[in-house]
Specification:
Elements lengths: L25 E4 L10 E2 L3 E5 L6 E12 L6 E5 L7 E4 L2 E2 L5 E9 L4 E8 L3 E9 L6 E10 L3 E10 L5 E12 L2 E11 L6 E10 L13 E7 L2 E10 L4 E12 L6 H14 L2 H15 L3 E5 L2 H16 L25 H14 L1 H12 L2 H10 L24 H5 L2 H17 L2 H22 L1 E2 L5 E2 L17 H21 L5 H9 L39 H11 L11 H11 L3 H10 L5 E2 L4 E2 L11 H15 L2 E4 L2 E4 L10 E7 L4 E6 L1
Antiparallel strand pairs: 1-8, 2-3, 3-4, 4-5, 6-7, 6-12, 8-9, 9-10, 10-11, 11-18, 12-17, 13-14, 14-15, 15-18, 16-17, 19-26, 20-21, 22-23, 24-25, 26-27
Helix pairs in contact: 3-15, 4-5, 4-8, 4-15, 5-8, 5-9, 8-9, 8-10, 9-10, 10-11, 13-14, 13-15
């Protein structure tokens, strides 16, 4: 998928790796030898838990970038870590070495990650991590301590600032208004090269007392290890048989979104502090319940149900319908690929979200339209017309690919992929106001780009020369199949879009679209590029001309392309390659081959204990949201038989794997239709 890949062989033990055999909404695990966490995210922040008591590996901030190095490109920020806490019982710190009955559970329905364990014979402890969907810049960790004997607990909350941050200022203040007192731990610092101010505020909440009455709270103690590590602690006695419930909440705000992030982070924490827990969490759950109106239900194969629902959970967790932001390949689980936006969004993640949640889909396309001017500037800078979108995009909309990577300079199909997503959004929503204001202006500029990017040959055909295609193993080739096919599709969509809004159709759009060359082998098999000679390919390229482009549609050629290119797929290629083959086989009615490739598209990439997807079978960089998009497309557009057409969403040629009893697709399209496929 990208310009580099990992050659790390992963050996793991499945000791105590259990994926909740009865509940299709939860995945649980005890202790394992190899561990990859599952992120709790809300489209703004991602919180990645560890397999040690009260530890969080990282906080990722969406769309907040600074330079990765003095001479490097942009990189998404890892935020201040407010998720690492400590607990002592009777003076002994709780660690992974003195607990038993360890269990962690992801509740996908409520986007809640719960850890529970016993501490010796003294206490049962559980805590649940939420990235609150309703208060989007905040995290909330809810604790429950049940005493088996009389105990004294000491709990310490922390704000730990990564060393890359500059000039942190850490404080503890008790804010007051009338009779209300609000204790706030806070750190404010500059990002690694000073682009942003980042502010994190945090406090404890005690559920069983009136938080406005200070004399009923445990006494708080502030300590500072350094400006990079500031802490807030309390002690409390719990009698045998009694339970103590409390929470730690924190907010992280930056100058990417706020003029005064320091004050905003305080306000978010105060809101969480003074809102009853039930009300706060009920609103979070309500918003997730609305998301799950778009759902996929598989009967008869619980493991596939969990795998598919985990994929959909991540796409929902990494996005927001009210943000006009996009989704990076690893979402909010890590800084991999610098948190940049690739074709992964438009071609892989966008289609399932378009069917299941049009609000999120609108954010994804608006992310591009908001950056149209920068795309137009890039086209001019390289001698072209129209708009030329970057291979890697950040908050600015300029090219963010490292200069050494040829993809940033030559992988141009991204520009066509954007137009395809835009027209598909209109085909599903029929939102003509959006098409006039945002959609068609982008599609038009993209069509103008492809006219200027193509070269007329002596025989009247057109070539697109010197590109990196979807198959990035071959650089600087002419007439890459997917690049040419996507350009044809984008140009044809521009014609349709112009007619829809009453704009003039440029005859060059038709001329170029009708004459862009797709090269063939003598037996009619589609060639990956003009000089392709059977080399191993990184991922699906030619086969994308069948799905989703429908440029190659005659069954004979489709089958030739499938059989020729599947053996050419690299074993170190990204997850979504085989998902394309699976969709096509399903549409051909071959449920056996489709199911085989569906499983092969992601099962080798699952990492214990929860089944998080890595990008490739030999890498360990989850969660790979692109792979999630690919596997979901197999279910929706393959087995489910759904097609995006000029008439909207239509169903035909649905086919069910023999391993499944039924497949139900809920909340499809603006009408929120339900489709049921049975044996």
């Amino acid at each position: 998928m990208k310009n580099k890949y990992f050659l790390i062989l992963i050996f793991f033990s499945t000791t105590l790796w259990s994926q909740s055999p009865k509940n299709p909404w939860s995945i649980s695990s005890g202790k394992v030898d190899a561990y990859t966490g599952i992120v709790a995210a809300n489209g703004r922040i991602g919180i990645l838990p560890e397999d040690k008591p009260f530890e969080v590996r990282s906080i990722i901030l969406n769309n907040v970038y600074d330079k990765e190095s003095p001479l490097g490109v942009s990189k998404i920020l890892v935020g201040m870590n407010f998720g690492n806490l400590e607990m002592e019982i009777d003076g002994e710190k709780i660690t992974e070495n003195n607990v038993s009955n360890w269990m962690q559970t992801l509740n996908m329905k409520e986007a809640a990650f719960t850890t529970s364990f016993d501490f010796k014979d003294k206490a049962q402890i559980s805590y649940t991590i939420y990235a609150l969907r309703n208060v989007q810049y905040t995290g909330y960790i809810d604790f429950k301590v049940q005493a088996k004997t009389d105990i004294t607990i000491k709990v310490t909350g922390k704000i730990q600032t990564p060393e890359e941050y500059l000039d942190p200022i850490s404080t503890f203040r008790i804010l007051e208004d009338l009779e209300t007192t609000m204790p706030i731990l806070q750190t404010v610092a500059k990002s690694r090269f000073g682009k942003h101010t980042v502010a994190t505020s945090a406090t404890f909440i005690w559920h069983d007392i009136n938080s406005t009455r200070e004399n009923q709270r445990p006494e708080l103690t502030h300590s500072s290890v350094s400006e990079y590590d500031t802490r807030l602690s309390f002690q409390k006695k719990i009698e045998k048989g009694q339970t103590s419930e409390f929470a730690w909440t924190a907010a992280q705000a930056t100058t990417q979104d706020f003029v005064d992030p320091q004050s905003e982070s305080e306000r978010f924490v105060i809101f969480n502090l003074l809102t009853p827990r039930k009300d706060l969490l009920d609103e979070h759950r309500k918003l997730w319940e609305e998301l799950w109106e778009g759902d996929i239900i598989i009967e008869g194969d619980l493991q596939s149900q969990l795998d598919v629902r985990l994929a959909l959970y991540h796409l929902y967790a990494f996005s927001r319908g009210d943000s006009d932001l996009s989704i990076a390949p690893m979402g909010l689980s890590s800084q991999n690929y610098n948190g940049h936006i690739f074709w992964d969004t438009e071609l892989w993640m966008f289609p399932p979200l378009l069917l299941l949640n049009q609000d999120i889909a609108r954010s994804l396309v608006n992310y591009r339209s908001d950056r149209l001017e920068k795309a137009k500037q890039k086209a001019i800078n390289f001698g072209y017309k129209g708009a030329m979108f970057p291979w890697e995009s950040d908050d600015t909309g300029e090219e963010a690919t490292p200069a050494w990577a040829l993809t940033g300079t030559f992988e141009h199909h991204i520009t066509a992929d954007v137009a395809i997503a835009f027209w598909d959004y209109y085909r599903v929503t029929k939102n003509k106001e959006w098409l006039k204001e945002k959609g068609f202006p982008v599609i038009k500029e993209i069509a103008d780009f492809w006219v200027s990017r193509s070269t007329r040959n002596p025989d009247g055909s057109y070539s697109i020369k010197n590109v990196v295609g979807a198959n990035e193993f071959l650089a600087n080739v002419d007439d890459n199949a997917f690049t040419n096919g996507s350009a044809i599709t984008a140009l044809r969509y521009a014609v349709l879009g112009a007619k829809e809004v009453g704009a003039e159709v440029d005859p060059q759009w038709v001329e170029v679209a009708d004459n862009i060359v797709i090269h063939k082998f003598p037996d009619g098999t589609t060639k990956e590029n003009r000089t392709y000679n059977g080399e191993i390919i990184k991922q699906a390229d030619v086969n994308l001309l069948t799905y989703p482009l429908d440029v190659v549609s005659d069954k004979e050629t489709v089958l030739k392309d499938l059989k020729y290119y599947e053996p050419k797929l690299s074993p170190v290629g990204p997850a979504m390659g085989k998902s394309v083959f699976a969709v096509i086989y399903a549409r051909l009615g071959d449920h056996s081959e489709a199911y085989r490739l569906f499983k092969e598209s992601y099962e080798p990439n699952k990492r214990p204990p929860f089944g998080a997807l890595a990008e490739a079978a030999n890498s360990d960089n989850p969660y790979f949201a692109t792979g999630a998009g690919g596997m979901l497309q197999v279910v929706l557009f393959g087995f489910g038989g759904l097609h995006i057409t000029e008439n909207g969403i239509e169903q035909n040629n649905e086919v069910l794997p023999k391993e499944w009893k039924s497949l139900t697709l809920k909340g499809i399209g603006p009408e929120k239709k339900t489709y049921v496929i049975k044996q």
